[in-house]
TrEMBL record:
Catalyzes the NADPH-dependent reduction of ketopantoate into pantoic acid. It is an enzyme of class 1 (oxidoreductase). Residues 3-153 form the Ketopantoate reductase N-terminal domain. This is 2-dehydropantoate 2-reductase. Keywords: NADP, Oxidoreductase, Pantothenate biosynthesis. Belongs to the ketopantoate reductase family. Its EC number is 1.1.1.169. It comes from the Bacteria. SUPFAM superfamilies: 6-phosphogluconate dehydrogenase C-terminal domain-like, NAD(P)-binding Rossmann-fold domains.
Length: 313
């Protein structure tokens, strides 16, 4: 399958590498020129569960994507939420009548942007629990196991979704179809809405955060705000299940030593974060539905203060 990874950061690098290893025709598109230069010169270098792997995958800057002759069967979107519109506009020439878009972004509401570029029956919304990190331009650290769920936005898109799932599973990405992807997205948003912002503000990995005395009260308060908003959108979250999933992030033997993507963006690379599409989205939805969201609102403000202090761009 001809696949574009639109957003070749940590997670995009993981999916691109694994799909490339499964003999798909993969290209990477991103806006970080230094990262792209390293990949094109030296290959994508990955610490893959302790083994060094070098993959020669073509990598292009999104601002020059209109020069690329590549008719994509599948586009997997891994941009930051605030970059999605620009990316889709940049790669529009590679979107054909049969191209499917799989959106695996953190946060909520991205289908509204995607429908500006493709019809609903070409959009797959997904949720992934894989992890990944970048140790420098062109260098990825990929560890642990994961999975993803996806659902077609259209009732007629199930067959096409199954073909995408077959390709993903051929790359050992552990994909399955879901009839309730919004519930999965909200559960993932709860993980991101706790681990990302808190680890970033407190300069901590997930295991050390989980070892602090006040963390249970803080996490419970944030998750309750997510659940209250989700209920207004027809999603009933199983709070015990969500909290158990969050607590699994603290395990030092699995992913507990990981620094979440927001930490990597802001603390490591001084980049703007997706907080407005995670906790900020819950705060905005809370205002719409008359739901109090003091923890999400405060955490969003704290992250924006940190962005200004670090001069994030």
């Amino acid at each position: 399958m001809k696949i574009i990874i639109a957003g070749a950061g940590a997670m995009g690098s993981r999916f691109g590498l694994m799909l490339h290893q499964a003999h798909n025709d993969v290209i990477l598109i991103d806006g970080w020129q230094d990262h792209l230069d390293h990949i094109n010169r030296d290959g994508l270098i990955a610490d893959f569960n302790g083994q060094e792997i070098v993959a020669k995958i073509p990598a292009y800057h999104q601002d020059h994507a209109n020069e690329i002759d590549f008719d994509a069967d599948l586009i997997i979107v891994f941009t930051k939420a605030m970059q999605l519109d620009h990316m889709m506009a940049s790669i529009q020439n590679m979107i054909g009548d049969q191209t499917k878009i799989l959106c695996l972004l953190n946060g909520l509401g991205h289908e509204d942007t995607l429908e500006k570029y493709v019809s609903k029956d070409h959009i797959l919304l997904g949720n992934t629990m894989w992890t990944a990190g970048l140790t420098g331009p062109g260098k990825a650290k990929l560890f642990g196991d994961g999975y993803l769920e996806l659902q077609s936005l259209s009732t007629t898109g199930k067959a096409a979704a199954d073909k995408v799932i077959d390709v993903l599973n051929g790359a050992k990405l552990n994909a399955k179809y879901s009839e309730h992807i919004l519930s999965s997205i909200y559960r993932k948003a709860c993980v991101n809405g706790t681990m990302n912002g808190l680890c970033t503000i407190l300069d901590s990995n997930m295991a050390d955060l989980g070892a602090t005395a006040p963390i249970d009260d803080i996490v419970n308060s944030i998750v309750n705000e997510f659940a209250a908003v989700a209920k207004h959108e027809g999603v009933e979250l199983d709070l015990d299940q969500v909290l158990a999933q969050i607590k699994s992030c603290y395990d030092r033997e699995t992913i507990g030593l990981h620094y979440p993507s927001m930490y990597q963006d802001l603390i490591t690379n001084q980049r703007l974060t997706e907080i407005d599409y995670i906790n900020g989205a819950i705060a905005r939805k809370g205002q719409k539905y008359g739901v109090a969201t003091p923890y999400c609102s405060f955490l969003t403000q704290l992250i924006h203060c940190k962005e200004e202090l670090l001069g994030a761009k």
